[in-house]
Structures are given as C-alpha cells and as structure tokens.
C-alpha cells in the first residue's frame, strides 16, 4: 500500500491475477471474441467467389444483394448472382421462426417438467442423498449426444421400439407417425437439456431460508399458497437462469434437426451451414448467424425485462 | 413436507432421462438388424463387427488423441483462470471470466462456424489440431467451473502458513495448493475428456475429413444395416463415459473431503 504507483502495480495482487488469467483470456479472445467479431464484419461485406470482399453493404441483412466475381480479363469485380438478404428471404425467415418457436417450446417444456424434480431433490431428499440424485440426473447428459439423439430416432421411427411394442400389444393397428415431426424434436431437445434446467433451479431452491416457509404457514397460508407466494418467487432467479441456459443453445441446435427431423425440418443452424460451406456465401451465412444471435439476444432481454422484479436483490 | 406424488414423478422423470441409454444395450445384443420388439435372440455379433472395422480403429485413435490433448490443455487453462479468479482481485475480472465462460451458453454451431471462417481466411489448414483448438474452447468453461469450486474451498491460511515457513510462491503452490486441488484437477480432466470424445459439431466442421468416433457414428447412421453396430459401439461408449464420470465424481468428493468443504452437489 505504501508502494509507489507505477512499478508497484506490476508487483501487486491485481497484476499477479492478470498474469495468471492472461493465457486463458488470450485463448478466449483469439478463438472466440475475434471469430465472433469477424462474423459480424463479414455480415456487412460483399460476397466473392471463394473470398470475401471488404466492401461495406447492408443488403446481406435486408434487400437484394449481388455476389461479385473477379473478371480475369479486366481484373475488376463484376456482378455474379443475386440473392436476398437474411431478413428479406422468406426461406431464412421461415427457418428463423421455426427455430424460435421450437426453442421456446423446448424451453417451456424443459423448465416446467424440470421444476418439480429440482423441488423434490431440494426439499424432499435427505441431505446425504442429494449429491447422488444430482449425479444420477447428470449422467445421461454426459453420454454422447449423437447417440442419444439417434436412440430417440430408433424409438419413434415407423418400425421402431414404441410402434412395435404398441402394435404387438394390440393397442394400435397402424404405426403412429412420430418420426420427422416437430413434436419429436421438442421431446429430444427437452431430454438433452434436462440437467441444464434442473441444476440452476435446484441451486436457487437450496438457497431459500427454510424458516420463511414455516413463517408463511404460521401466518395462515396453506402449503400450496406458501409455495406460490414464497417458494416460487424466491426460486425465480434459478428458473430465469434455466430458461436462458436452455433457450440460447437450443436455437442453434444442429444434430437434432438432422437426425430427428431427417433433414426435412431444417432449422437456422442448417441454413448457416449451407450458406457458409456448400453455397460459399460467407457474407449471407454470417448475416444469418448474426441475425440468429440478435433474435436470441432480443428474446432473452425481453424475458429478463418481464421478470426484472424477481432479480432485484440477487447479485 | 413429504409428497409421495412428487417422489414418483421424480423417479419417472429419471426413467425418461435414462430410456435412450438403457434401450441401447438391449438392442446391441439383439439378433436382428432392426431395433424393434419382440426381441429375436442373443448375439454378440455386432460387437465383433465393431472391433473388426478398420475405419473405426482409425476414428478411435483420432478421438483419443483429440480428447487426450483437449483434456490436458483445457485443464491447464482452467487451472490458471480458476486460480486467478478465486485468489486475486483484479480489474476486468468479471468481463474476462464472462468471456471465458461464454462457450457454455453460446450455440455451438455459431462458434464453430465463426472459428471455421477465421481459420480458413487466415489459411490455417484444418486438421486434428484445429479440432483440438475448438474442443479446448468448449471444455475450458467446464474445467474452470469445477476448478473454481476446488480452489474456493481452499483455506487461505494454509498458503500463508507455508509462506511464513519460508516457502516461495512457486513452492507453496507446488507443495501445498496443488496436492489439495489435485482431485479437482483430475475431475476436470475426466470431464473434459468425456465432452471431447463425444463432441460432434467441432469434429464435423473443424476437421478436414478425419473421422472421429462421433463423426464416424453420424456417418454410419445413414445406412440402416449398420444400426446394430452403432448400438454396440454406443453401448461401449456409454459404459466408458459412465466409468469416467463415476471416477470424476469420486475424485471431486475426495477433494472436497480433503479441504473440509461441504458437498454442494454436481459438477455444474
């Protein structure tokens, strides 16, 4: 503290902390922040043949755009194909809406079905058995995602486990049509993200002072009204975290639309892949990626805003 | 309060979570090329086919290289970040830790595509190395989360005692802190290994056609006659994952016991 400024800083605790974190931070800046910034930049540049031309334009987002091609004779760029910007292209918009409502569906289903489980583990399981329950809940999550999604496919396909069981029991005569439906995608995704929803809610429930519940009941509330007026509001911070942690990655899911949707119900991630790779339009691909992030961000912020009263007082 | 309905619900929910990985071994041993009830008979043929496929051997080797390197690098980066964030206060720590943890919530596809575009435009050839880079990015937040709780449960006075007894900062770290957080380190490495060996999106987009286990499986799914082989392979993979996780959990608990902290539950 009595050390002079300047040299003192480089030997201070703050400097040691910065040195220590710098490799990890640098890695994240180079491999995450820089690529995301590049995507943002590319989304306002012009598409060329196997290259991106640093000419500013907004038509990758809205309006009509033209790809450029280098003319070998003159050495100048000439107009090649035209395409519609992300927000003007009905195909992109259809996929964006589908991704959005599938993720909202998945998030609602995951969080609503997960809440009672988190509640049960926090309130009804003996403390010594809690970590066993949490461990059991997280195990399926750590096994191969591709295999889990594939197994759902095996179960719901026309000749799959569920149909063959129901038919051999004589419950149904015709196989149920479950494969390649949005409902099947919702179940698969809700299954995949279950622990992500349970854990934050569980943590929030664990923090609740149990004497508040007794106070509620002493003051004449029933168990149910105590839950509605004390437990639920106090656990909303966990519910909000769960919603965001399920919603944000779900909108970019790639494997489930491929395997469960059979490629017939593409989502926005499939569009990004096609534009970035097969169609070699990195400008449009970047604009679609940025748009997806903007949609996710806007919906998340709106959700946070609507629930702002539950977040007061928490960090 | 006790609610029997809640208990049955939780058990049912757990069953729902386990359905896919419990059905997997049933059909892996079933003597039929289609996965349907009633079962036809017991066979180990599919496991035999898995082990005799040379492409699978190559994929397994690649996956082990990727997952092994990822777990080492992600854990090293995790140790540095977790130590810095738990022990020191410095300007920008909140935003730096936010950036480091961001891959946990960001859609993987968007990260993979952004990274791919940058790698291609600066001319880095795609290889196992670029897959490792992507996987380290994905795994580091998990390593940081596990190691932060390991470092947090450390008693700062132990470190001060070592320094009072004449140890320098490095020998204090090596002699006192490292042994105490070692279970956390092992646990972080195992978790990163588990994530990296199953990781699909990074392996699919940041490699140049090298098959890893996940991309190999994804490729095989297009051929219905290979489905039983995939179930056999899946059974083996799930068993390995569960074994690794149980080991990770064992070390995590031992670490907490060693530092005398209260067990607060899972990895996340």
Automatic annotation (TrEMBL), chain A:
Domain ABC transmembrane type-1 residue range list: 96-305
The keyword Transmembrane appears for this protein: yes
Pfam families: BPD_transp_1
GO cellular component, one term: plasma membrane
Subcellular location: Cell membrane
Source organism, top-level taxon: Bacteria
Residues spanning the membrane: 20-45, 100-121, 133-156, 176-205, 226-248, 283-306
Location (main, coarse): membrane
CDD domains assigned to the protein according to its UniProt record, in alphabetical order: TM_PBP2 (cd06261)
Family: Belongs to the binding-protein-dependent transport system permease family. CysTW subfamily.
Protein known as: ABC transporter permease subunit
Organism: Stagnihabitans tardus
From TrEMBL, chain B:
Membrane topology qualifier: Multi-pass membrane protein
Domain ABC transmembrane type-1 as annotated: residue spans: 60-248
Location in the cell: Cell membrane
Example of a GO biological process term: transmembrane transport
Family annotation (Gene3D superfamilies): MetI-like (1.10.3720.10)
Keywords carried by this UniProt record: Cell membrane, Membrane, Transmembrane, Transmembrane helix, Transport
Family classification: Belongs to the binding-protein-dependent transport system permease family. CysTW subfamily.
UniProt-recorded name of the protein: ABC transporter permease subunit
């Amino acid at each position: 503290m009595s050390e002079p400024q300047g040299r003192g800083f480089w030997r201070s605790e703050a400097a040691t902390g910065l040195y220590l974190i710098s490799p990890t931070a640098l890695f994240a800046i180079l491999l995450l922040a820089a690529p995301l910034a590049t995507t943002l930049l590319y989304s306002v540049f012009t598409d060329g043949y196997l290259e991106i031309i640093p000419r500013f334009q907004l038509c990758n987002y809205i309006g009509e755009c033209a790809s450029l091609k280098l003319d070998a004779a003159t050495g100048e760029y000439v107009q090649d194909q035209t395409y519609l910007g992300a927000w003007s292209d009905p195909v992109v918009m259809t996929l964006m809406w589908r991704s959005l409502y599938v993720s909202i569906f998945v998030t609602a289903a995951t969080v609503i079905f997960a809440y009672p489980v988190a509640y049960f583990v926090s309130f009804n399981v003996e403390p010594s058995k809690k970590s066993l329950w949490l461990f059991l809940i997280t195990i399926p999550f750590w096994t191969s995602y591709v295999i889990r999604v594939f197994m759902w496919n095996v179960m719901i396909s026309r000749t799959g486990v569920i149909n063959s069981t129901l038919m051999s029991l004589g419950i149904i005569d015709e196989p149920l049509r479950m494969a390649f439906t949005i409902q099947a995608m919702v179940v698969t995704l809700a299954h995949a993200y279950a622990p992500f929803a349970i854990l934050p809610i569980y943590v929030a429930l664990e923090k609740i002072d149990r004497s508040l519940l007794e106070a509620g009941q002493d003051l004449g509330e029933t168990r149910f009204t105590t839950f509605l007026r004390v437990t639920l509001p106090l656990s909303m911070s966990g519910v909000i975290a769960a919603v965001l942690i399920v919603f944000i990655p779900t909108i970019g899911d790639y494997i489930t639309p491929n395997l469960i949707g059979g490629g017939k119900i593409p989502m926005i991630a499939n569009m990004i892949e096609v534009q970035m790779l097969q169609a070699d339009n990195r400008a449009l691909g970047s604009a679609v990626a940025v748009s997806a992030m903007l949609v996710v961000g806007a919906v998340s912020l709106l959700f946070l805003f609507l629930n702002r009263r539950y977040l007061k007082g928490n960090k | 309060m006790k609610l029997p309905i809640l208990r049955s619900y939780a058990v049912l929910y757990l069953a729902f979570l386990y359905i896919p990985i419990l059905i997997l071994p049933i059909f892996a041993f079933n003597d039929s090329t289609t996965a349907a009830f009633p079962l036809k008979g017991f066979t180990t043929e599919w496991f035999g086919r898995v082990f005799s496929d040379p492409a699978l051997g190559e994929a397994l080797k690649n996956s082990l290289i990727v997952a092994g390197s990822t777990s080492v690098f992600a854990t090293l980066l995790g140790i540095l970040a977790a130590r810095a964030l738990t022990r020191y206060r410095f300007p920008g720590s909140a935003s730096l830790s936010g950036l480091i943890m961001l891959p946990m919530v960001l859609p993987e596809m968007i990260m993979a595509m952004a990274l791919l575009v940058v790698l291609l435009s600066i001319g880095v050839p795609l290889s196992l190395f670029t897959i490792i880079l992507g996987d380290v990015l994905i795994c580091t937040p998990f390593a940081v989360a596990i190691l932060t709780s390991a470092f947090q449960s450390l008693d700062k006075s132990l470190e001060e005692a070592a320094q009072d007894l004449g140890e320098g900062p490095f020998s204090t770290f090596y002699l006192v802190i490292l042994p105490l957080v070692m279970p956390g380190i092992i646990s972080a490495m195992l978790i990163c290994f588990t994530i990296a060996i199953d990781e699909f999106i990074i392996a699919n987009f940041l490699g140049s056609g090298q098959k890893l286990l996940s991309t190999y499986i994804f490729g095989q799914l297009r051929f219905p006659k290979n489905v039983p082989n995939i179930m056999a392979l899946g059974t083996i993979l799930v068993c390995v994952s569960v074994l690794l996780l149980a080991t990770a959990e064992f070390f995590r608990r031992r670490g907490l016991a060693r530092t005398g902290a209260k067990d607060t539950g899972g990895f996340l």
